[in-house]
Amino acid sequence: MLEIRFHGRGGQGAVTSAELLAEAALTEGKHAQAFPSFGPERRGAPVTSYCRIDELPIRLRTNISAPDIVLVLDPSLLKTVNVTDGLKETGTLIINSQKGPEHFVHNHKLHKIATVDATGIALQILGRSITNTILLGALIRTIAPVELSSITAAIQKRFDQKNAALNIQALQQAYQETKILNMPDYPTQENQFADAPAATGENAPVQPQAQSLWIELELGCLITNPGNSKTYYTGSWRSFYPLLNKDRCIKCGICWILCPDAAYTQDTEGFYPVDLNYCKGCGICAHECPTGAITMLQEKEAGV
Amino acid sequence: MKKRTGMEVSFAAAEAVKQCKVDLIAAYPITPQTHIVERLAEHVANGELDAQFIPVESEHSALSLCIGSQAAGARSFTCTSSQGLALMSELLYITSGLRLPLVMILVNRSLSAPLSIWNDHSDVMSVRDCGWIQLFVRNGQELYDHVFIAYKLAENPAVNMPVIINVDGFILSHVFEPLETISSHEAERYLPPYAPKFVLHPDDPVTIGAFTMPSFFTEAKKIHDESLKASYGPILQAFQSWEHISGRSYHPVEKQYTQDAETLFIIMGSLAETAGEAVKIMREQGVKTGLLTLRVWRPFPFAELRRAITGVQKLIIIDRALSPGGPGGPLAAEIRAALYNMENRPQILNYIAGLGGRDITIADYIRMHNTTSVQETGYEIYDQKGAEANA
After folding, report:
1. Do residue A222 and residue B198 have CB atoms under 8 angstroms apart?
2. ipTM value > 0.90
3. CATH number, span A2-189
């Protein structure tokens, strides 16, 4: 059985890409399943989805904790999520990044590491940073759990004609541009300069200790420090940031009203500067601004 | 002997709630709960009780309101029956999950359909797993007493759980009978003012009722279960301190004629009183039978029950509710589970009886005892008319 885990952000299509891969496997007569891991439903929040492919019927109803393949749809996830958690030593890591795969080598053995600038391709062809089908192109190029033609068939079945054509074009470009590192060929002494994916910062997801945690819960699971979401910096979710052009701003406050994370506050001059600790880059402000004073710009990938 | 006063049991309950100085009462009228709530409304209206009385548009709202008021630090009370409890059901789980020490009197009435206003235990058994402490009383005195006991217990910082007091509708709630009351001074001595650890207040805010991820939900249920089980000790303490005030002693499992008994009846609620009379008659005839009554249904009194049935050959468990297509009655099903690992466990007969107000007489108990049935299906819906015809 082949087990594949997708790491994305809410709205990037991680669930769809798992389903497209399963659909492609089904068209080849294989057995497959795809499923999401649901958490708080928020655009930009780290999300996980899973796909299993096998020659035999699949009877598992558990999350994938030791995947054969991990796909990372957004490079910013590397800072906050331990994407390689449980990844098999014979496994493959595929990352949306402008950097080459050698930047992601770290201390454990892997079969292959691959990168592709999926965000760049998505913006160029689709006009928005939905990277799911593009990463599938990189997957087919790297390890080919299904045929390219099966994936394109699945895309044609899923999307309308225009969107299917654009997604297939993006997927094929990713297939061409994917950079692959075969780890057995890679000299081990050069491993030390890698950007090790890790989740040790303060934004790392809390891993509760299993034993006796219940004893520590407050009466009725009551929270004694309300408003503690202030310490939850959703700014780390951001792939795009809003830039305000003060010459066009009429101080109407629409951005302040509609921001789902209350990242806008009014300053003494009456403008609404954004707090990038909380802005998750959803772009609602830019979309709704009546004078077009806000533009969404792509965040630079760390180290590029 | 203290002075006894004759009063309707519902009014005795209202008197006790008044003496507990509740801050808020929210309820919606439903038969047969009405006399309790109407009397409390009078107490508030004529100034005898300084409380908010809030008539609401449904039982769902009644319990919602009590959750809010209890969270804000107000000692609250509600009361319902049957369909009213069913309408409250989602909020029952919220009240206990939030560990709010509310007290509710449930005047037991059967659930529709067919529509019936009369007594059985199908209402409370439908919310068996709602996570409240659940008590049953046999007479008016016990109901009066258990209102104080329930608040004492619920608000004990080591407990912090809501309590349901079950009282049989009409057959007990509407009976006029004598009982002893305590003075307001004694009431104050037994039940100190409500002093919760946390209250909803803008000056010192807390979050109550937040969402929980899978990584914590199991722990939340674990602590609820452990806390409910651990309330057993405080229940015994509350009974003991009540005995100091009133001279009346209560136990999680009440026993009558259990010495050297070969058979035991087990029943909950007011019908235990008739069953006790039947047992007395049978004892006079030399039949070695006895009676157990579960006063405490949650937390289930496993250890005390096992001790009480040791050496007994046969249990006759009378359920006032039915699990259709299931294992019979909930009381018998739980007792079977509790005794399963015992060596020499007794034979069990389970009668589903007294549904929707059907009267059960002394003759019926004697008939149940003398049957030679082995109940292949594990239970029998007791049918007096058929039993009489076959006699």
Report:
1. yes
2. no
3. 3.40.920.10
